[in-house]
Amino acid sequence: MTSAPVSSSMPASDEASLLPPEISRYLPGLYMMKFGNKEMSLDMNKNSRFASYRNIILFTLLTALMLMGVYRVIRWKDTTGNYISSYDELYHTPENTIDVAFLGSSHCYAGIYPAVMWEDRGVTSFDMAVSGQDKDSYYHALIELLKTQKPQVVFADLYALTFEEHAFIGNVYRNLLSMRTSSNSVQLVTAYAEKEDQEDFILRWPIVHTRYRELQPYDFLKYPLNDFGRGAAYDWEHNDVSWSTPCTDTGLSAPLSDSNRKWLDQMIRLSEKKGFRLVFTILPYDVSEDDRAVYNTVTQYAGDAGIDVIDFSLLENEISLDRREDFRDAGHLNGFGAAKITRYLEAYLDTLPQEQYLEVDRRTDAACAIWNRDLSWMNQTKFRYALDNTDNAQDFCALLAQTDGITAILSLEDTGNEHALPEGALSFEELLPALKPLGFNTEIAAPGGKWLYHAGELTKLHDNDDQEEAFSMDLGPAYSLRVQYNGDFAAGNLMIGLTDYSHRDRRLQMVLYDNITDEVIGSYCF
Amino acid sequence: MLFQSADFVIFFFFSVLVFRFLPDKFRRNWLLLCSLFFYLGFDVRFLLVLAPVIGIGFLSGLWMEHAKKTSARKRCFVGAVVLLVLILVVFKYTGFLLENVNTLLTALGQKPIASRFSLILPIGISFYLFQTIGYLADVFHGKISAERSFPDYALFISFFPQITAGPIARADRLLPQIRRLPEAEKPSYLHISSGFSLMLWGFFMKMVISDRAGIFVDNIWQNLFTCGTVETVIAALAFSLQIYADFAGYSAIAIGAARILGLELDANFRTPYFAESIAGFWRRWHISLSTWLRDYIYIPLGGSRCSRIRKYRNVMITFLVSGIWHGASWSFVIWGGLHGLYQILGDLLKPLRRKLCIRTGIRENTFSFRLGRILWTFLLTSFAWIFFRAGSLSNAIYFLNRMFTRWDPWVLFNEDIYAFGLVHLEFNILTLGTLLLLAFDLISARKKRDFGELLSAQSLWLRWLVCLFLILSVLLLGEYGIDFSSGQFIYAGF
User: Fold this and answer.
1) What fold is seen in the domain A75-380?
2) Angstroms from B188 CA to nearest CA on chain A
3) φ/ψ (deg, to 5) at B211
4) Does A207 contact B483 at a Cβ distance shorter than 8 Å?
5) Does the first or last residue of chain A, that is N or C, have fewer Cβ atoms within 10 Å of its Cβ?
């Protein structure tokens, strides 16, 4: 005789009578509910159990898909241009194409331009640099690079040895969140982050979910520079940073900290294991006495291990660095200074024995085409710098006519209304010669109007005639242009998005749009 | 382990998974193990309080049942209750009592008593002590028989979804379910689905609405010196929203989690801000506490079946107990007292109100009249919440001073209101969340079902759509993570 199991076929009323009605409603296996037109039993029989597990699995998959899609949008990215992380650029680099890698912080991405090395010699180099890169991030960034690349030489900047923790939380995020999730990224988090924060950094979502407050077009669209950037942040602005510290060695040294010793040993071991030549650099900045003492100790330690240290802060005279022209600020070089450093490193590479470094010109290698695009981008930034520093219409238009990378939207008032212009503004006759390189002549320019200038072609978009409707077009995935005629010098004549670029006190207004980065460069008027 | 932490999600998932595949006879013990792990995860020292409370309750229950004489039963009951209340007083009210004694001594020119040690306040102590007292009272009055299985009783007191902030379970409801665990069928897909969606709704209320409103409220309270009428009024209303979404959110998570594990806890909220009177509010707000107070304090005192004066005394005592139960501060006592006063005044003025309605021809059953009563009740409760939020009497007085003495309507127009932690986007999210809460409460009030029950009755695509929306809202818009010092649920502090 077998005892009767608690069965789902037991009458509901019997079972329910044991408990108050609000509880018995939930007795398992007896709950009947309508789904659409079907009344289905929720007994956990075989079929419904299968359906339940199927539903749970499907729902979990759907949730995972949704969250993955959202994560792509909110994940930490480097699209602002103010701070740099070159991980996304690394992930867009074809495998085994990088011959020379530079590691470091902003000193590195501001001070070494791979595009210069590419232009000079066809050498494929890359700045594996993140703002304020700390020692742990440094080491794991190199491991990340070595997953897909086999550089012959790695130049590692030593600035990270002068501090133990980031001064800005933003730099922690840049260093700990921009690497793809892997065992390497988890090791980085456990090495750097405080124990109570590690879970958040490993999961990432608890940190980046607040980015819904700051989402920009490039969180949804692909950021063009990530496709081809080589880690450098091109900047040509210069500031006089003639600090008082002489570029000489003070001779002071500080005890080698445990963390610095550990890091140096790690790096040396890694270079031996992976077979690349390791070289330490100290890129030029206003080095304090404390930092100098650390560098001296580290240089001694590295020297004992047979590792070269190139201290650029002591080589300023040798490479003719000009503190008035070659720096953007006291901590960072500009493009002119970076070119000098990069060329010094080119010369240094020439001194290495062939078994350690065999220079290869990869300019004909199709896999390395992104270095060409990066070079174009560097030239474009230099060109933009030149435009920004041109204050007369003649030179400005002449420069503009030389590039294909920039689109100009021009708005020109007709020959009348001279009285509306402020004193000193260019007259039509004075302006016309300047416009000639862009394809203007008296006949075209005299009635005024709105034009698009792109790759040597001038296209009229709108006449200065109030009978016509507004003309609109998309400039890129994130910007739209509208031109119309509301009257001479009136508001709303030239709109990009909701920003009004209409000129109110000049005859010619030009808005420049960068075709490489798909962004508005700025507005210029003459 | 906070409900809104990844640790809890992992812990709960693991608990359910093992519960699901464990042989039936081990399920009770597994839940007890999980409950102890959950509770002691806050602080292992809490066991020093929880264990004696469980022991006192269990042994006293058995003792009462075995006692042959009524006097012995009574002695045992009173002794156990005194002991339990003493534990509560020692851990929760020592500082408060000492502070007041010292104030008195200082006023009399005497030397204040120095505190030699500080006691930790075990989380949820007020809840599980009240649950134990309720159990003992039920055994004493013969409503239930004493529980003979120690693991069952220990699980009844320490069941992890409700130990930190209730709902205060009744023994006649929860204990039979616990006893049935070994032979009951495992929770069905519908249980899991309903419990899961109820938990999601709870997380939404807590993390998207309550914590967001809390940022604004905290900013106002921290910057009272610069706030006037408009900010303080909005902060008072926002706190009403915050505490409701916080506690109802917690209760939804607790009830949903229990439902997934096959246990049904009593509802703790029934759209309280739709109440048309303060008495009605307390029938809908923190139901497990208000019914506990009704059954174990108000009715034993004589309830309403006595003279009007005694009835009002009973009401006032009940609400003062409720106030002091919430926290060791005079501001909580005043909060409780205000609610008692509201009820007494409401009762006293009822004939006058009726007369006025008859004379003026106002019909009390119209929508507009009822809406007016709802709004008036909401305003009264919101006013009382000021004392609840203040933390101290002086803070409450300062808040009221700013509210009634600085008229500053321009902050609504010059955008100053957005300077208190919530920018436009955050305000919009809060507004949208509040509208969703309001919409659900309207449906819930009409259908008399909780979120999980309502959603389970819908078609698959709608259930999934709502659940995906809630998951995304909580994970994306919820207030948590490294930049946010996520608060414990407000009531867990009691």
Assistant:
1) Rossmann fold (3.40.50)
2) 5
3) -65, -30
4) yes
5) N
